[in-house]
Design brief:
Layout: E1 7-12, E2 28-29, E3 32-33, H1 34-42, E4 49-53, H2 58-64, E5 69-72, H3 79-90, E6 95-100, H4 108-116, E7 123-128, E8 131-132, E9 136-140, H5 144-152, H6 158-162, E10 167-170, H7 172-176, H8 191-200
Parallel strand pairs: 1-4, 1-6, 4-5, 7-10
Antiparallel strand pairs: 2-3, 6-9, 7-8, 7-9
Helix pairs in contact: 3-5
Length: 215
């Protein structure tokens, strides 16, 4: 079992969010900004939180999350795999929990279960049926050399990493103990996703009424 104080929270926030006309950290769901909901959950496990973003969004990320450390992608344009690499390169802990900035329903019980299940594994990844959830997973710093090799070969599918390192897949049955509706993995990618999240938390904001945080 890994001490939860030895975990870093890595939030990937490098997406363009072109479908909204606003960056995802600016999205508001109910009374909370999307990024705040993610930060609130991760702060239950660690005071070490890192946000990985692109160079042109550094100012936005720092304004949206002043309590977190913000770093820019080491390998720009390499997608989530590049973001994971950047996060791991900047952490001081052996393990990190990696999540997206657009996941409003992270489940504390499930997160603790993932952390407790690390043991000697290099990665702990939820898997529902054939669907792997690499952006809601635990990664060890030992993954860094394998990720770097994949990036240099322009092999950017995260699933390729799991074939190279000692990976534990957390099964659907295990996940259902904490999150039977699998809301932990709900990403806000479209206006429909935003509306669904609004309804679920009892909000009344229309997806057309996406508010931007003032900076």
């Amino acid at each position: 079992m890994v001490n939860i104080n030895s975990i870093t929270g890595i939030i990937l926030a490098g997406g363009k969010s072109t479908r909204f006309g606003a960056n995802k950290p600016q999205l508001k769901i109910g009374k909370s900004y999307l990024i705040d909901r993610v930060l609130d959950t991760l702060s239950q496990f660690t005071s070490s939180i890192l946000i990985v973003t692109t160079e042109d969004q550094l100012g936005l990320a720092k304004s949206a999350a002043p309590s977190a450390r913000v770093v820019k992608d080491i390998y720009p344009g390499k997608g989530p795999l590049g973001g994971i690499y950047t996060g791991l390169m900047h952490t001081e802990t052996s393990y990190s929990l990696v999540v997206g900035c657009d996941m409003p329903f992270l489940n504390s019980g499930l997160i603790k279960y993932l952390i407790d299940g690390v043991s000697s594994f290099a990665a702990v990844v939820p898997k529902i049926g054939w669907m792997i959830q690499p952006l809601h997973a635990i990664y060890s710093k030992s993954c860094v050399p394998s990720i770097e090799a994949l990036i240099r070969d322009d092999q950017l599918q995260i699933i390729k990493l799991f074939n190279l390192v000692n990976t534990r897949y957390v099964t659907e049955k295990e996940i259902d103990q904490f999150d039977p509706d699998h809301l932990s993995f709900l990403n806000i990618n479209t206006e429909g996703d935003l509306l669904k999240a609004e309804v679920m938390i009892g909000g009344k904001t229309s997806p057309k009424n996406v508010k931007k945080r003032a900076y």
